[in-house]
Amino acid sequence: MTIKIYHNPRCSKSRETLALLEQNGVTPEIIEYLKDVPSVDDIKQLLTMLNFDSARQLIRTKETIYKDLALSTENDESKLIDAMVAHPKLIERPVVVNGDKAAVGRPPENVLAII
Question: Which CDD domains does this UniProt record tie to the protein (predicted)?
Fold first, then answer.
């Protein structure tokens, strides 16, 4: 089974998580999600694997685009997911996937539970 990391090489936490995986003998498939944007179905699947109740839990709420789109008042889950697809910068990072499990690498040590 291939372990995947939704990675942003410009993010220190994402780089730290990738390094931690490698230190533990894992060579993950790297998905640079800003270039290879996850689909609506991909995000729904991540939300399920993460056991998140709301798409908002996977959104970076401090991003300017979050405020610009007035997402803090949006309660329609499909609109939140559509916003992440349209603006992948909104997706929390990094996310590591191993089979049917996933973890957000904040802090990076969170991903150790699924490898």
Answer: ArsC_ArsC
Domain boundaries, the chain: 3-114
How far does the chain reach from its first CA to its final CA, in angstroms? 11
Residues in the chain: 115
Helices 77-86, 40-49: crossing angle, 10 deg rounding: 120
The type of residue at 85 is V
Tally helices (H) and strands (E) across the chain.
4, 4
Please report where in the chains the tokens 């997706």 appear, as a residue.
91
**CA–CA distance, 63 with 67 (Å, rounded to integer):** 7
Is 3-114 a domain of CATH 3.40.30.10? yes
pTM above 0.90, yes or no: yes
The residues assigned a catalytic role are 11
pLDDT tens digit sequence for 41-71? 999 999 999 999 999 999 999 999 999 999 9
Distance CA 43, CA 57 (A): 12
Do residues 92 and 104 make contact, with C-beta atoms less than 8 angstroms apart? Answer: yes
